[in-house]
Amino acid sequence: MTHSILYPDHLMEKQKPGKKIPPFVRWVLWALLVQFILFNISAALYAYKFTHVYDDPSLQNIPSNKNIFVRTWRIFSGPRQVKYFLTASPAFKYDTVILRTNSGIEINTWYARPDSSAKGTVILFHGIMANKAMLLAEASEFLFQRYNVMLVDFRAHGNSTGSTTTIGIKESEEVKLAYNYIMGKGEKNIFLYGSSMGAVVVSKTIADYDLKPSGVFLEMPFASMQSHLRARFRAMGFQQFIEKPFSFFVTFWIGIERGIKGFRHQTAEYVKKVNCPVLMQWGANDSYVLKSETNDIYKNIASEKKKLVIYDHAGHESLSLNDPAKWRMEVERFLTENSRFN
Predict the structure, then answer these.
(1) Handedness of CA 81, 87, 92, 98 (dihedral sign)
(2) Does residue 56 fall inside a structural domain?
(3) Are 256 and 326 in contact (CB under 8 A)?
(4) Low-confidence ranges of the chain (pLDDT < 70)
């Protein structure tokens, strides 16, 4: 006796095999996933160390290494930023003034007056991982031109307290504190001077708090947090295929870890609200701040009274020390033209 088994029609149709991903494609996808994870781990480490300032003097003056593996490891594990405490004092007489942020961070400043009656006050702000002592040459020149000076250590820099930097975002509070302190003295002729990150913070503070200084000096401001990070990676010998994506991820993780909006930290946007006179200066050999960045920032400055001065033989350095005669001439002219004499 023969038995037959009946199957539903749909089961009797020929089964179509599912589309399988070729092995080499799966291997590529896995490799990309692993790379993405490693990239983010590295970026998170870099972001933390780049914005955390260490007090360990043994980390100072670590020699650079040309070995590609050493440099790759350093960029993977992140740099250690070291605070340089000030032990030397200015040659001129000064008072130490301590300002305090809302979170209790002590901001250490030097305040000095010229020998004769002052024409006004210039407040000076340094760059990242620098300190107020690095602006003594500029401060001495302002004193010589009969202006009071106030030199400020940003949080986590110099002799100020704090252990983290936000590359110029939260530091705008320090600019506002110093400005208010000088205003409280009855001063009406106030100029703000910023070098590198200091110039970025000055621009941001004017935009955030609508300050009305007599004028501002912006020297070598970087365009954004990403552009500053790219410059650092370039200095380590890494080209665009590394610097662009890595700067993106590091900026992202800085925002997550420090609770800030890193992608919005753009100087060209801040200066759209700077309506006071501006003297912007830059060195043609600056490898950290490119010509295109400088042009974009200068173009966006809202003030109709602005000037861009280029130093042909200067890099990312003190322009007053690179070409003292030119710097003195430009600064003196700017002060004379824009001072609000009492």
Answers:
(1) positive
(2) no
(3) no
(4) 1-19, 56-78, 237-241, 341-342
What sign for the dihedral angle of Cα 106, 148, 124, 325? negative
* Position 237 in a domain: no
Q: What is the pLDDT of residues 170-192, one digit of tens each?
A: 999 999 999 999 999 999 999 99
Reported as a single tens digit per residue, the pLDDT across 6-36 is 555 554 455 555 567 787 777 877 777 777 7
- The domain that holds 328 is classified in CATH as 3.40.50.1820
Rounded to whole angstroms, the Cα distance separating 122 from 144 reads: 12
Domain-located, residue 102: yes
Task: Quote the domain boundaries for residue 91.
Answer: 83-223+266-337
DSSP letter string, 225-274: HHHHHHHHHHHTT--HHHHHHHHHHHHHHHHHHHTS-GGG-BHHHHGGG-
Number of domains in the chain: 1
Q: What is the pLDDT of residue 11?
A: 47
> Which pTM was predicted?
0.86
Does 165 fall in a domain?
yes
